[in-house]
Amino acid sequence: MKALKNWITDLLDRAFKRTVVLTNVCIIKYDEANSLGRVYKRGCIDIDDLNKKIKEGRLIGQMDSGSRFGSYSNLIDLRDASLIVTGADNDDQALRICLKTLKTDAGRDLAKLIKHDSIVFRPSCIGNINPDGTIDSAKMVAVNAVIAHNPSNKYK
After folding, report:
1. End-to-end CA, the chain
2. What domain range includes position 99?
């Protein structure tokens, strides 16, 4: 297990050269329906768990999540990793993150799309969705980049 963690850390360290860095990226607006009709309630994200994953370098993401594992999968294929979350800021209205693109083929593709302002970032969480679409408790497992076909879906 430790060898795998060291391998992943080395891979990510090498991948940080020449990256795009984004700060203050809103990925969740609390108490508002997102494009999937889900409403994240204030305080629903386990911030301690989120900060632990960020500190350990374990909160990564890819473009168009689920391409190999089915739509909206929480699984990340490390071969497709394109970003890593480096920080988070949580308040009563929103959860915002800082992220870096990785120096991988997928990371370079993501950087190009970011420069054209055609990407939105979405959380991938594990939790329960209530019948009314609200989420009271969730743990974030990834942050994924999605091509923004509709600019009005982009959080500001």
Report:
1. 39
2. 2-153
Q: Which residues lie below 8 Å from residue 81, measured CB to CB, with a gap of 6+?
A: 15, 60, 61, 62, 102, 104, 106, 107
Please give the tally of structural domains in the chain.
Answer: 1
How far apart are alpha carbons 156 and 121 in whole angstroms?
Answer: 11
- Cα 75-102-120 angle, rounded to 5 deg: 65
User: Is the sign of the CA dihedral 96, 100, 104, 109 positive or negative?
Assistant: positive
How many whole angstroms separate alpha carbon 29 and alpha carbon 121?
12
8 A C-beta contact, residue 123 and residue 46: no
* pTM recorded for the entire structure: 0.77
Integer CA distances (angstroms), 99 to 70, 130, 131, in order: 25, 30, 32
Considering only CA atoms, which of 34, 68, 62, 14 is closest in space to residue 138?
34
CA distance 107 to 143: 13
Helices (H) and strands (E) in the chain, counts: 3, 7
User: pLDDT per residue over 90-138, tens digit each?
Assistant: 999 999 999 999 988 889 888 888 887 778 899 989 998 999 999 999 9
